[in-house]
Amino acid sequence: METLLQKIEGYRREIEGYVTNGAEAAEQFRIAYLGTKGLVKSLMGEMKQVPADRKKEFGQILNEFKQFAEAKYNSLKTVAGKTPSLAAAAIDLSLPGDLIPVGSRHPISMMRHRIVSIFQRLGFSVAEGPEIEDDWHNFTALNLPEYHPARDMQDTFYVSTDPAWLLRTHTSNIQIREMEKGVLPLRIVCPGRVYRNETISARSHCFFHQVEGLYIDEDVSFADLKQTLYFFVKEMYGNDVKVRFRPSYFPFTEPSAEMDISCQLCGGKGCNVCKNTGWLEILGCGMVHPNVLTNCNIDPEKYTGFAFGMGVERPALLKYGINDIRLFSENDVRFLRQFSGVV
Ligand code: DAH
Question: Residue 343 to residues 193, 309, 330: CA-CA distances in angstroms?
Answer without folding.
Answer: 21, 23, 21
